[in-house]
Amino acid sequence: QPQGSEKAKTFVHAFLKRSMPTMKDEAIQDMLTRKAVVLEHYPKKKTKQKRKKTKGFTAKQRRELRLFEIEPEQQRYAIFLPLHELWKQYIRDLCHGLKPDAQPHMIQGKLLKADLHGAIVTVTKSKCPSYVGITGIILQEFKHVFKIITKEDKLKVVPKLNNVFSLELDGFISYIYGSKFLLRASERSAKKFKLKGTIDL
């Protein structure tokens, strides 16, 4: 055998003797004759660092910071007309174009889950007569109310409960029964609505 091979054999034997001091020479020799050496290695377990969850603002803090308030100089109907145009295009894309042969219940089902920010709505029925006839662009939707800017540049806070709203787009008129609509916009997109049922204020 070449001299290099002997050196390698001696090195491996010495390495195994150091690595496994409790093993006898016969056992080491047996491993070498089989030419299969398995060295066990136990890696250190990495401790996972817990990520700190970033806490958002509480409802009280949001009110104090006035995060959802619209400044008086921004409360102008004309400013939000481009938003309404974007909303119309969004609904057309969502409904694959509001064609005359489109099935009304399919469009209604999509509108119920759609984002209404930018939609022009009218209060058609209400238990409070002073709300009837209010028309404007929805600027904000909360669980219980719509904030609407009218053509007179007045910001109206209209409750959903006990009110019926209508919206019109490309000749298609849809009605929203606020009493059945007491959800946040984000929650509504995942809710299953019954298109048929009792209608009340």
UniProtKB/TrEMBL annotation:
Pfam families: RNase_P-MRP_p29. GO terms for biological process: rRNA processing; tRNA 5'-leader removal. GO terms for cellular component: nucleolus; ribonuclease MRP complex; ribonuclease P complex. It is found in: Nucleus, Nucleolus. InterPro entries: RNase_P/MRP_Rpp29-subunit (IPR016848), RNase_P/MRP_Rpp29_sf (IPR036980), Rof/RNase_P-like (IPR023534), Rpp29/RNP1 (IPR002730). Gene3D superfamilies: Ribonuclease P/MRP, subunit p29. Keywords: Nucleus, Phosphoprotein, tRNA processing. GO terms for molecular function: ribonuclease P RNA binding. Component of ribonuclease P, a ribonucleoprotein complex that generates mature tRNA molecules by cleaving their 5'-ends. PANTHER family: RIBONUCLEASE P PROTEIN SUBUNIT P29, RIBONUCLEASE P SUBUNIT P29. Belongs to the eukaryotic/archaeal RNase P protein component 1 family. Component of nuclear RNase P and RNase MRP ribonucleoproteins. RNase P consists of a catalytic RNA moiety and 10 different protein chains; POP1, POP4, POP5, POP7, RPP14, RPP21, RPP25, RPP30, RPP38 and RPP40. Within the RNase P complex, POP1, POP7 and RPP25 form the 'finger' subcomplex, POP5, RPP14, RPP40 and homodimeric RPP30 form the 'palm' subcomplex, and RPP21, POP4 and RPP38 form the 'wrist' subcomplex. All subunits of the RNase P complex interact with the catalytic RNA. Several subunits of RNase P are also part of the RNase MRP complex. This is Ribonuclease P protein subunit p29. It comes from Melanocharis versteri (Fan-tailed berrypecker).
